[in-house]
Amino acid sequence: MGAPNSPKPSGTGCHVCGDATGVREFLSLGVLPLGNAFIPTSEIPSEKEFPLAMGFCSRCHLVQIVEPAPVEAIQKVYRNYSYVPTGATLTQHYGALAEEIVRVVGPSPGSMFVDIGSNDGLLLRSIRQRVPTAKVGGVEPSSRIAEIARSQGVPTITGFFDRAAADELLARFGSADVISVTQVLQHIRDPVAFLELVRGAMRPEGVLVLEGRAYFPDVAETVSFDTFYHELLYCFTLHSLKFLLERAGFSAFHAERTDVYGGSLRVFAQRREGGRRPVRDSVKAILAAEAEGGLTRFETYSAFGARVEAVRTELRRTVKELTREGGTIAGYGAPSTGTTLLSFCGLGHDVIGYIVDDNPLKQGLVTPGTHVPITSVATLRARPPDYVLVIAWRLKDEILSRLSPLRGRIKGVLVPLPTPELVP
Known about the structure:
Layout: E1 23-33, E2 49-57, E3 63-65, H1 71-79, H2 88-105, E4 112-116, H3 122-130, E5 135-140, H4 143-151, E6 156-158, H5 163-173, E7 176-182, H6 191-200, E8 202-213, H7 216-222, E9 234-235, H8 238-247, E10 250-258, E11 264-271, H9 281-292, H10 298-323, E12 329-332, H11 336-345, E13 352-356, E14 374-375, H12 378-382, E15 387-390, H13 396-403, E16 412-415, E17 421-423
Parallel strand pairs: 4-5, 4-7, 5-6, 7-8, 12-13, 12-15, 13-14, 15-16
Antiparallel strand pairs: 1-2, 2-3, 3-9, 8-11, 10-11, 16-17
Helix pairs in contact: 2-3
């Protein structure tokens, strides 16, 4: 994860292009805790919550949190971050991403790959499997997760990607041929300054690889309002990302959509000065599709807000029916997005008995705001509920497969989005 950086001025001004009047709110999700602030029960009394509302900038077309939570609170979350990629779906995805990077970039023997927000080093390990001569280095703010990466042979700098980390990166590894920033940029308080630091750590002919969830066309298609949580400051389109990249001295030369995390946008970029790779038709195609889909107009986002309200009403009604005659519900998955899903829909511990998650770093904690205890998957076998709510619904197929041995012991599985669906 990169550093959240210093706070931008509050109010309705755009946090990237600086337009003082162009940001218009289209969705209010209420007052919520930080999405990743999973805590022990002893810390519930000191838990903090902040308003969460989304707005659209008419100048640079960026979807953003209107009033971000304090930077100090977000930094604290990421220093104690407890997420690592788990499950076959994500392992396969990062392997495929490594394949794509190698195919598009065509690295020379001994090329230097750097991953910012490198987590446990999964992507860099996948790169090294495909390019055995590659040199790799990661930057990761969570000390626990950085140590996991080092234990698996991935040299990792512990800290946010700020000026000091950039200097250490250059001193230890030299200028990078490829810098990947996956599922990170949408969390950065000042993304222009962040990308300028990235540019300074690259060779003149180097390649920047961005991948981020919260690609708005996918968010709109699945009505996935849970995409928005305090740590995720922005929701990109290629229009808004192109504006941001150019302001930081980059130009996009290839773009593609992926289905990971419920829909992500992947962009390959180079320095505006020094980059020699031709711009591929993929960039023009996605920009044209976005324009045709109305993604440069506020009305599109306002209509999305109305659809969110309708889906919330339907989900609350469905849950009420399932529990009306004593039906019990457990949750599957404790992602950061679940904080918004549960809080916005009013689904707390009085409705959900427990949540199972494969990540041992979250087991024994409770969900932010709703305070549902998180435990291991073994609890489902020991204390099966009547129904399972798939909170990590973006991994629906994998989770449904895992639940198949319990089908005779539970009445059904509730998938909340795009529309509530009860699977027998």
